[in-house]
Amino acid sequence: MQKILKVFVTVVYIFMFALNSSFFYVNASNNETIDDVMEGYVKTIGYSEYLLKTGSAPHPDSEININAKDYTFASEQAQVTVGEILDIKDCLLLNGIGGKVYWTVEVELAGYYELSFDYCPLPYKGTNIVLKLEIDKKTPFDQATRLILNRIWKDNGKIKTDKKGNQIVPPQIEVPQWTIEKAKDTDGYQNEPFLFYFGAGKHEISLETTSEPIAINKIILNNSKSF
Asked: According to the model, what pLDDT value does residue 42 have?
């Protein structure tokens, strides 16, 4: 019995080794090294470490507006269309979940910028919108993989009181509207909006919808405080 068990373990070990070798052979083709392949699997750094890594930099008194409809590329899964939502014409609708959209931006003054989204949620499951952000095909820090944009809700009626004096809260209904919201830490560890470093020159920004569809009018790079 022990011999059979040893043979079985050996066969499994050889099979797993061959599987892993095959993985690296396939993915490390086209002149890629194993280090190149594994780079995409390394956990991204946190926001605090990102600020330390990018170092001291100015906060330019400059605003850059990117019209969402002027995207450079969109994956098929993003299911993008250009249309009108709540009197805003030529906005970009990201109807798909999991698709990516890319924009090119020219930055004149290097430094840290806050990132804002002029957006309107689209009907779907009714949860908050979660976006994954990449700059120049890289995730700047871990929290940028789950940027949350809120839906707006209000009470559908007035608060009532039953015969026992208990208050009955009315159900909530969504109020679709255009909102400008900054990329920030929704976990509460960071009160100020996130800062993103951009060197002078041309950059690529991409967004991936991971939970809900969204309409975007503009992506804005600016600073609340300039110093």
From this structure: 45
